[in-house]
Amino acid sequence: MPDRPEVTAVEIARLAGVGRAAVSNWRRRHPDFPRPAGGSDSSPTFRLDQVERWLREQGKIAELPLIEQTWRQLETLRDPAGHPAGAVPAAGAFLLLLHRAPAAWPALAGEPDTTLATALPRELRRLTVSSLGPDAPGLLDLPSLAGATYLDLVRLLARLAGQHGPVAAYEQLLARYAEANSRQLSPTPPEAAALLGALAGRPVSVLDPACGLGALLLAVPAAAHRAGQEADPVLGALALLRLALHTPADTPGPLGLDLRPGSALRADAHPGGLAEAVLCQPPYNERDWGHDELQYDSRWLAGVVPPRGESELAWVLHCLAHTAPGGLAALLLPPTVASRRAGRRVRAELLRSGALRAVVALPAGAAPPYGVPLHLWVLRRPAPGDDFRQVLLLDATQAAPGDGGRDRIDWPRLHRTVLDAWHGFDTAATAGTALPADRPGVHRAVPAIDLLDDETDLSPARHLPPAAPAGDADGLTHLQLRLAERLAALAELDALLPHARPVTGAGTVPTVTVGELARSGALEVYPAGQGAPGRTPLAPGETALLTDQDLINGQAPTAASAAADATPTARPGDVLVPALATAAARVVRPDDPYDGAALGARVHLLRPDPAQLDPDHLAGLLRATDATRRASSYASGTTRLDIRRFELPRLPVERQRELGTAFRRIADFEAALQQATGLARTLTQGLTDGLAAGTLEP
Known about the structure:
InterPro entries: DNA_methylase_A-5, Restrct_endonuc_typeI_TRD_sf, SAM-dependent_MTases_sf, Type-I_RE_MTase_Subunit. With about 700 residues, the protein is of the alpha/beta class. The chain folds into 3 domains: about 5-180, no CATH class; about 200-210 and about 265-465, Vaccinia Virus protein VP39 (Rossmann fold, 3-Layer(aba) Sandwich), CATH 3.40.50.150; about 510-650, DNA methylase specificity domains (Adenine-n6-DNA-methyltransferase TaqI, Chain A, domain 2). Helix content is about 40%, strand content about 15%. It has 24 helices and 24 strands. The strands form 6 sheets. The chain has a 9-stranded mixed β-sheet, sandwiched between helices. The protein is globular. The protein starts with 5 loop residues before the first strand and ends in a 5-residue tail after the last helix.
């Protein structure tokens, strides 16, 4: 283990907010760039202190971000032969101390290290036992003696928590850990977890038998008793701390959390336990899930053992067995589980029993693996006398245009589509009301007996009637009138566009970088990466979270900020820039949708001093092709804007305002044109679909 933290080229790029190719260029062009200290020829590592000093001398960073300092300190405590999480659980335990006993650390912080070496571990053990139970210190692998390196870590953690709060600080550590171990970890995104949590409602008890980092348990109210199991005990410890930190600090201990290690299929840690809701995204395509030794397990419905290659169906039956009568189970599964011939008997038993209530096709990118359009299965364990035998088949893939993708999903629309259809269907099942009307191409209630055939294929697309055209004749006529109005307005806007003329005899204008302006106090820079985590949907009264996709699409924020108090919020006069260099910068106006929104993780925020810099002039320059190209880095096919390298001409503020007025007119014209394009696309597609389906004629 190195005596000083070392970083790779990728991590150097992250520190400076550039692409990896920029780091390679620095190594070639600057003979004083630090020499490799380790690693290999293809992936060298460099001493962090030397890299940080060089970047600061070159003006590429003002100071190493505190989260990076903390992560590097965590890395020095990690045993290379041990678990990748290293000391993250011990760091989380200290943040839990700051959360639940905020007066404890200030009382200890002034003590000498010799006293802290024993006093701090004793305080951590006391807190974790009282909050999480007697097994918590062992599960979290808390140190019995705090060495100097660990004490340096807790001091950094205290500073990080002072900036963002203990909860947001821990979320940053988890995000950094997941990023560093992306091949081994595939956490459920908060938007997908929120969808499953909304399906569960407000249950008294919840179980996730494959909880990972606890995203699904985090999506239900903290007042519920939350139980879980995780095959990796360290991941389970991280999830336990996460749930404890998200529980209100004044909640008396022990908290209603019961997370245990072990494989739920082969070593069920909650035998006989029943929960009002069971939420799960199980591991997929497991080959060694215990098929041979579990032949006579009581969890198998009607004694039908899932085939060896159907591990996902084994998880479905495990979740159903732990669901209380009348309770709900929701699982994210690969789409092949609905149609593979080997699983036909198990699917048939789920239909005959009335347990399977809904199969929802989600767009690709909703949850990992992101390239696969997953299915959401919703089950209810039938209570005595429950003879409901209908299944809701729902295709929600229209919530992502084209081929979908993580950044293209319209999460509010997806939530509305799924929850509205499910609530109407579930009300019919529990209260005996009429089933909701079918929506062609979207959802349909199908009698279970109609699905029982030689294949018992539950894929929604196979059973839904084709979608109707995107509107009737009257609706399309109304849309055409709206488009005509918008085009007429564009003609008026065209008259407002500035009339350009060539400039002759212009000399060279001196320039200044955004980084230099920030150091002089002419503007504040909040670079991409300082944003808060988000979740959807956005409820009334919540702080909106501004994402790069919102800016690129010119739409109002759709997500809610999960850490608004610790995140910069946009205000009139700010300039917002997506991290992708090809996107447009936008100025925040009073009372527009971005006013008051929290900064997302891939959005730069510039706050100019209006006495020195005109916001519209600044935004117009940021949209310029050549200047943006020179301030961008290119790596792995992605163009990323290095905001501090961006060069601006040195102009009097009066001249800036004159040019800013012209830039604003151009931006207004572009926004109106974008809205007209959206209307035109909807109109032409509706006309095409209506003529093709025979429901309209010319």
